[in-house]
Amino acid sequence: MRRGRRNNKSDDAEVDMTPMLDIVFIMLIFFIVTATFLDEKGVDLTQPPPPPDTDVPSKSTPAITVYVDQRDQCSVDGSQTTCDRVALRVERLLADKPGASVILRLDEGARHELLVGLKDELDTRGLASKIEILRSRS
């Protein structure tokens, strides 16, 4: 006699996936609600269209030009002056031309110590200037 009955079904157990799907959906909702989204801003690389040819600037900015030639002689707006009096001359011209920019032009043969001295003197007086080095025509 046999004591136990034999089960004709296989011994495979079925797993109910419904509770696991519920947990997955709850976690998905939780992460969507708690997520922070970054507001990233990009750089606009499109160039503006070129201005039409008919537009002519109404008023150009005046400029005061300080020129030092290859023999280390200085001139301010075309009039010859000594290099140690350049800053005083520029200050006087700025009184006549308020808002003018100062351009410091040097020949490439001029001494660089002179350039540094003129630039320092203009800077200490609060006169902003731009430097241009001109090539000699040889």
Walk me through the structure.
- The protein is α/β, with parallel strands linked by helices and 138 residues long.
- The protein has a domain at 63-134: Nucleotidyltransferase, domain 5 (2-Layer Sandwich).
- Helices cover 30% and strands 18% of the residues.
- The protein is built from 3 helices and 5 strands.
- The chain has helices spanning 18-34, 86-96, 112-124; strands at residues 63-68, 74-76, 79-81, 101-107, 129-134.
- A 5-stranded mixed beta sheet has the order 3-2-1-4-5, with helices on one face.
- The longest helix is centred in the first third of the chain and has 17 residues, at 18-34.
- The radius of gyration is 40 Å and the shape is rod-shaped.
- The protein starts with 17 loop residues before the first helix and ends with a strand.
- The model has no long low-confidence stretch (mean pLDDT 80).
